[in-house]
Amino acid sequence: YACRATGPNVAKIFSVKKEVSLAAIPATCTNNVIRLLSGAYPQFTAAVDVMETSMNNFGAIFHPAPTLLNSGHIERGQSFEYYLEGITPSIGEMLERLDAERFKIARALGVKAITAREWLEESYGAKGDSIFEAIQNNPAYKGLTAPSGLNTRYIYEDVPCSLVPFSSLGANLGIDTSAINTIIHLANLMTGRNFMEEGRTVEKLGLKDMAPSQIHHLVQTGLVEKKSTFEEEVVA
To answer: Residue 111, Cα to own-chain centre: how many angstroms?
Structure first.
């Protein structure tokens, strides 16, 4: 849902997504999970595995950067529409950079990836020649206000649990993630935290030096496959 809590046990739903990809760990259980949830949420469709759903996590693109770059307005307590007012053309350009890095990592891992613009069209029917234009053309975002402060999941969840894994996977692949790293570093400076240490890195996830095929085998079956090293498969 595109929604906001309006009080205790109350939420306002602005729009319902047309489709949401889902994967279980291991992926052999995905269809069972979808079968259990389909009565309540018919929008769920099966993804190949959690690498697909994780690398197509667009909260990582749309949440941390606009929140940090609008921190002055947020901390002054000025209510504004998060997407339609908070994502300006220049912030939209930053999101394009973040999304391009995410997409490149996903493709290198053999993940079926879509761009943020494609996701906006698939989920909401919003079209545009840029992320900024597509967001402005998305009526589902009308009325969605910004967080009331910086103590928000847009930073404390999306940075360590989404941007840090992207950065760590990129480093393992030798892919430049300068835009992603910039937002992580900005979050560190503005919160006094070290999200690279706190976050989900390939070392913590047990994926260090794993080849892409080994990672997919692990999340699809729950079993570790002894094969080529990460470096050998990437070079090949």
So the answer is: 14
